[in-house]
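hey
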């Protein structure tokens, strides 16, 4: 059984920004492929959230998992994965979460 994926407004904005930057840098097709890979990773996590690592040192209850050059930050609920942010791996997560 898989968990629902729920996106915070900030995570949705992150996805939009990632696509725009990728499209400007490498073209729309590559941006679509990259965003698809991020979404595939989230789908994988919805089936097996135990793959992620604890990020409780940043915020209590937070989990993280890498996807390309980005890190997915989320919380696991009884019936859903709540995606908090999707940040570039070079970003200071403590400042942005």
């Amino acid at each position: 059984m898989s968990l629902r994926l729920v996106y915070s407004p900030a995570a949705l904005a992150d996805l939009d920004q990632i696509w725009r930057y990728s499209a400007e840098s490498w073209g729309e097709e590559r941006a679509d492929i990259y965003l698809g890979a991020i979404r595939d990773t989230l789908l994988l996590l919805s089936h097996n959230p135990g793959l992620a690592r604890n990020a409780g040192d940043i915020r209590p209850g937070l989990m993280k998992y890498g996807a390309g050059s980005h890190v997915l930050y989320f919380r696991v609920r009884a019936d859903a994965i709540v995606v908090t942010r999707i940040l570039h791996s070079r970003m200071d997560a403590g400042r942005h979460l």
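The CA atoms of residues 16 and 35 lie 9 Å apart. The chain is about 45% helix and 30% strand.
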